[in-house]
Design a protein that fits this description.
Alpha-Beta Plaits; 9 helices; 25% strand; Ribosomal Protein S5, domain 2
């Protein structure tokens, strides 16, 4: 009897790194959050054919093909000779700051390992198989645990940054994601080159960011102190953005998102930060009333004409994985 594995995972928001090219100590690290949308859902089966079969959009085809090959190389015995049928049923948009590559890679790797009757592997073990987590591991840990995440950086390049804190994010708090449709975020080799050109992050900035995380953001999430969290996130996002300004032109990658943040702050709204290299800007809202208020400001000022705008909820669990027998 053949089997099918269905994996569903959410989106990773990355609100900023803690250290770049330090003279001493750990590099990278960062904070982020898993949210329930956009979501990725895929099914994987062992193929009866002598080739892999992939059903997805054109943009994702080569990525899935590469992940299958990487995952297969780590199998043994007959499992290494198998081919797979993969169908991507819903996708996380690429190059928007959502960490789509990591969620896709781990989902495919997890499904293949289960079809190969391996003991359940951790997300870190899966990430090593498919070469994810080179700089940030927030998506790696988010795939397994969900929630608000803090990673501690790495001492050596081959290490995957450890998870040092994970907290359930208040379910009532919502997040508005504003994604300009006329500009994509950077990734891969271009991202690595941009980071290299920036040089070392000042120790004083790392100290400030770590203080904000340890003394304000984590406690505010734990105590559901929305005012403390939203003010801290805005300060964190600004501080990180100023450092990355030479690489992305402004504190945010898209100039209109800089304008939007200024507008929102002038209205007394906080909780604003770019996710990864953008161009998506995220705004954390206390409740549905706040969502309505912020959304109206965004749309009434014309941002809906060139942006995708969606309201999402925190995802406080890891990927949902189902295996079923097929007739």
């Amino acid at each position: 009897m053949s089997r099918e594995v269905i994996v569903t995972t959410g989106t990773r928001l990355h609100w900023g790194l803690l250290s770049i090219a330090p003279l001493a100590g750990r590099e990278f690290g960062g904070i982020g959050l898993m949210v329930d949308e956009p979501r990725l859902t895929l099914s994987v089966k062992v193929s009866p054919d002598e080739k892999d079969t992939i059903v997805c959009s054109e943009n994702y085809f080569s990525k899935i093909e590469n992940v299958i090959n990487m995952a297969r190389r780590n199998l043994s015995g007959a499992s290494r000779e198998r081919f797979y049928s993969v169908e991507l049923q819903s996708e996380i948009p690429m190059h928007c700051g959502f960490g789509s590559g990591t969620q896709l890679s781990l989902a495919v790797a997890r499904a293949i390992s289960m079809l190969s009757e391996e003991d359940e592997l951790s997300s870190i073990e899966l990430a090593k198989r498919v070469h994810r987590g080179a700089r940030s591991a927030l998506g790696v840990h988010g795939f397994e645990f969900g929630g608000f995440l803090v990673e501690g950086g790495k001492n050596i390049s081959s290490e995957i940054s450890p998870l040092v804190a994970r907290v359930d994010f208040p379910a009532d708090w919502k997040i508005i994601l504003i994604t300009p449709t006329d500009q994509a975020g950077i990734s891969g080799n271009i991202e690595a080159e941009a980071i290299q050109k920036l040089g070392s992050m000042p120790v004083s900035l790392t100290d400030k960011l770590c203080r904000l995380v340890l003394m304000q953001l984590i406690p505010s999430v734990k105590t559901q102190d929305f005012a403390g969290f939203s003010a801290g996130l805005t300060e964190f996002g600004h501080a990180v953005g100023e450092f990355f300004k030479p690489a992305q032109g402004e504190i945010f990658a898209h100039p209109r998102m800089v304008e939007l943040e200024n507008l929102l702050i002038s209205k007394g709204i906080q909780g604003i930060a770019q996710t990864s290299w953008g161009p998506t800007l995220s705004v954390v809202c206390r409740d549905s009333f706040d969502v309505e208020n912020v959304s109206s400001i965004i749309t009434e000022n014309g941002y809906g004409k060139f942006c995708s705008i969606r309201t999402v909820s925190p995802l406080n669990r890891g990927a949902h994985i189902q295996m079923r027998d097929l007739a």
